[in-house]
């Protein structure tokens, strides 16, 4: 997961921007009348988020007597997220926040949408709350669906609140096979407590990161296989290890817990891969 700075605007600003674009006068007024309720939920969210306690937010079917979850969903889709609406620039501010446009939930695919961290069908008071809106790729958004955590350990990671620290935690294991097989897993940091450890592993599972990273690693190895053959011919296993170490250090300097950092560390530290495994990248078992 990639950390993001939270949006700089408030729920009240999002509500007013939406209301200003609603032509049905009664609906616009009902939304404005809901501001105190929405602002109170935003304040609670901002209090519980840094504590990892968002699962304790109360679920509801109504925002106010005049606005239920279904109508709030219509307001979000038809006004806040609609192209050309007065509130669309706020939506874009959230969607365009990640570096290089990459999804902060997987760190791999391109952001395509804005996801409600706590689902809008169960938490309609938070539909327009900026800190509940996270840029995401389509796959991560679909994987989360409308599920709501019942306890702290079931929560996926939140880019605005969760800090995983500076230690290495993403690890790659290299299996001696033809072609070489790479598996990714979470190795708990000493900085984490039991709940955060469970949440990182939950996030890894829900977002399908192990198979995603494994597929990317297989493609990466295919890309470097020719260069490794040349290095191996010139300098043998020692040269292979030195070459992989340089690649590791370059990736580590940018992101110590990217799948590429873990991959190159795993390849470098595998005596089997440096000695013979690199020869088998382009060989397929028929």
Topology:
Blueprint: H1 11-20, H2 25-33, H3 35-48, E1 62-64, E2 67-68, H4 69-80, H5 88-95, E3 113-116, E4 133-136, H6 138-144, E5 170-175, E6 181-186, H7 194-206, H8 209-254, H9 259-269, H10 271-275
Antiparallel strand pairs: 1-2, 3-4, 5-6
Helix pairs in contact: 1-2, 1-4, 8-9
Strand coverage percent:
5-15%
Domain count: 2
- Summarize model confidence as the mean pLDDT: 95
Instruction: Compute the number of strand runs.
Output: 6
Rg on CA atoms, Å = 23 Å
Major sheet: 2 strands, antiparallel
- Secondary-structure-based class equals mainly alpha
Helix content: 40-55%
Helix and strand succession? HHHEEHHEEHEEHHHH
For the biggest β-sheet, the strand order reads 1-2
Total helical elements: 10
Q: Distance between termini?
A: 37 Å
Unreliable parts: none
Morphology: elongated
